[in-house]
Task: structure prediction
Amino acid sequence: MDYKVIYKRVYDVSKEGRLLSKNDLKAIFCILRDQYDFDIVCNNLVFSDELKNPSCIKFNGSCSFAAKHIELNLANIRNNAMIDTIYGTNLTMLRTLLHEVEHARQLKEVFSNGKFMNNSNDIDLLLNACSYNYLKYFFKKKSELTDKDIAYIKSFGFDINSKDYATLLRRFQKSLYTYAPNERMAHINSLSTLSTIVKHYDKRDDIIDTIQYELNNALLRGYKRIGKEICIYSPSYRFLRGMKFDKQIDNLKQLEDKYLSDESFNTLRMYYGVHVDDKFISEKQIKTRELKNKLGRE
Ligand SMILES: [Zn+2]
Result:
């Protein structure tokens, strides 16, 4: 991937003292689209303020399989910039675009593989397939669910009219970014790519530290320590248990044993949101706190 062209654009535009324009973002989008070849699931970049019914009012961006586009909400991104400067806002725009592009890549992977749910031998694919199977219904209103949708949801033991199901939807709506594997992985990947780009082309410590701080938080997100016991619940298993994906839980455990048994895979394990050594989590938490103090964050 030629990140140099992408970074140069962000850098030059920032140096001119302006934010990335829609044209700048479209040019970067085209480079990424060519690289990942996700035309079949998404081929266009649109902006919320140009749509009659913006679908990501609450979000910075979204990737719609149905509409085959990535949508960016520039007003939200400006309000949620990682660093409060023009350059920081432009980096946040790039991060958001990378996040949505990652969703397009995930969707392409899921929808070009028919047998994903039970037979996958790929952790990434299994987790994304479970996420998208759930989210397909999650964003539909009850009145929009077809008989086939209802039967599918029922096959996991949920009655769409039950309180259980309503509670589940509410719970996951609040914590979508904490547990849904596709969201965790897209967020981690976008920050990791941004970190690679910035470390390579920008040597400023404060920028590198800020992105590293965000990346550490993204990796730690969703891991929960219960009491003083060394017992950490991992986000992806919590998601799969909540969704009653029992077969997939067994499948994931087998894949973990097969591919992630070595201790050196701890960071990759956090990326997947599966069980990680308590010691590794504690060390990461300490490093993150140190960065937080260094950056003078609240
Ligand atoms: Zn997302």
In short: The chain has 15 helices and five strands. The CA atoms of residues 44 and 69 lie 5 Å apart. The two ends are 36 Å apart (CA to CA). The first helix runs from residue 3 to 15.
